[in-house]
Every structure is written in structure tokens, then in C-alpha cells.
Amino acid sequence: MTTLSLSLPRTLRLARWNAVLLTRNRLALTYGTVLPLLPLALLLGGDRGDEALGAATIATVLTMAFVFPVFYNVLSQFVTRRDELVLKRLRTGEARDAELLTALVLPGAVIALAVALLAVPVAAAFGQDLPRNPLLYAVGALACVALYAAFAFWTAAWTRNAEAAQLTSLPVILLAIGGQISLALPDAAQRWAELTPGAALTGLVRVTWFGMADGRTSSTLDLAATWGAAAPHLAVLVAWTAVACWLAARSLHWEPRV
User: Fold this and answer.
1) Are 256 and 83 spatial neighbours (Cβ–Cβ below 8 Å)?
2) Please, are residues 111 and 66 in contact by the beta-carbon 8 Å criterion?
3) Tally of domains in the chain
4) What sign results for the dihedral spanned by CA atoms 105, 72, 32, 201?
């Protein structure tokens, strides 16, 4: 049974320990910090202020930020420490389940949110406008952190070891990147693709940053209109998060799978 209450000081101490381990893994740190920002270089080769290019590029940046430091990092760390019995030993002490899970998520979440924040001045330096609705942009980023953390714990429930995570992570990665091409699909397929997390994130970027209505390639929404236009995309993220949390709570294993 999972204990939901947590101690903030103890959670932060555990998170600091996880952050130290993450910084020692140079490959994971590079994937989490450098790789997500690389797509911004595409803005150098395009027309300054090209909103369609900007929206696609920033959606790619955010997708990589949530997939690597949040989803894949949490998945691999949880599975590795579960198999090494680290989590089992911690659970026999004072640490509660919610503290262990939150502490695993926090380092990658901080990196992903830092990338989302850093993308704003970098994109502006490359000729893009500032976000139309910064608050909604921040809310969307936080929603994606919760979603991909939930995906990580759900995926960990049926991942036997760290090596298997390279395969078991593929369905979530496909959901993340497949939705980015939803606008290019036929109408019938597009309606289904828009229900994926990747399409929801892309839609949020288009609305909250560029004020683009669905299917449009230029700004048409003012600040007030972005709230209503963003609601369906946020609803998709919340629905996926609820389902992933429910499935993870039902099937999460704290000891090695046999």
C-alpha cells in the first residue's frame, strides 16, 4: 500500500541525492540538458519571425525535455534502484512511498522546466515573439511534467530491468512524438491523433505562445481567447495523467520482477 503523505525536508534530501547521481551520469545529463535545446538551431536557418517554424521547433524542444530528463530518466532510475533493492531498503526506514517517488521526479522536472524557461529568451533572440500567454505556457509545462512522470512509473511496472526500458519506453515516446505530425494527417486520422499527449503539447505551444487557432499557421487569438483555445489540450493532458496514475498505482512493483 502506498503512503501518500510526505515530509518536504526528507523529500528534498532524497531529491538532492538523486540529482547528484544524475550529474554523475554524463550521458543522461547531456540527453536531458543539451539535446532538447539543439532543435532551436533550426530557427537560425529559417525566416525570422516564422511562426509555423517557431511553433514546430519549440514543440520539439519541449517534447524532448519531457521525454528525456523526466520520463526516461525517472523510468531508468526507478527500475535500476528497484532491482538493486535500494527502494526496498529505503521503504523499511522513515522514507515514505510518496517521498521516494517525488524525489525521483524532482531533478528531471527541474531540468525540463529550466529548458522550457530557457527556450523563451533563446527563441526571442532568433526572431520569435514572446509567449502570448506566459501563465498558460507555464501551466502546460507543469502538466506535462506530471504526465510524463506518471508515464514513467506506469512503464516501470512492466519493465523487468534497465536494459528492457529501451524497448518498453517506445510506446510512450511514440505517443509523444507522433502527435506532432497530427496537422499533416487526413481529417479522419487527425481527430484521433489530437487525443495523443504529443498533439496536446503541440497545440498548447501554438495557442499559448503564438496565439494560433487549430489548423491556422498565423496568430489569430488574443490573450483572452487563448484560455478557451487551450482548454481542450489541457484536458487531454489531464486525462492521460489520470489514467497513467491509476494504472501505475494498481501495478507498481517496489521489488525486482521475477
Assistant:
1) yes
2) no
3) 1
4) negative
Q: Confirm if 204 and 59 have CB atoms less than 8 A apart.
A: no
Distance CA 209, CA 32 (A): 23
For residue 150, the number of C-alpha atoms closer than 13 Å in the C-beta half-sphere is 20
Q: Which domain holds residue 50?
A: 8-251
Collapsing DSSP states into helix, strand and coil, what is residue 162? coil
Contact 5, 94 (CB under 8 A): no
For residue 160, tell me if it sits in a domain.
yes
Nearest CA to 46 out of 55, 35, 37, 34 is that of 55
Answer yes or no: is 18 within a domain.
Answer: yes
Exposure b/e, 125-150, CB count within 10 A at least 16 = b:
ebebeebbbeebbebbbebbbbbbbb
Q: DSSP code of 69?
A: I
Alpha-carbon gap, residue 80 to 162, rounded angstroms: 6
Please give the Cα distance from 246 to 244 (Å, whole number). Answer: 5
Give residue-wise pLDDT tens across range 146-194: 999 999 999 999 898 888 999 999 999 999 987 777 666 666 677 788 8
Phi, psi for residue 2 in degrees, rounded to 5:
-85, 130
Rg (CA), the chain: 19
Measured distance CA(150)–CA(146) in Å, rounded? 6
Q: Residue 201 falls within a domain, yes or no?
A: yes
145 grid coordinates: 511534467
Q: Which amino acid is at 9?
A: P
The verdict on residue 229 lying in a domain is: yes
Q: Tens digit of pLDDT for each residue in 98-119?
A: 999 999 999 999 999 999 999 9
pTM: 0.91
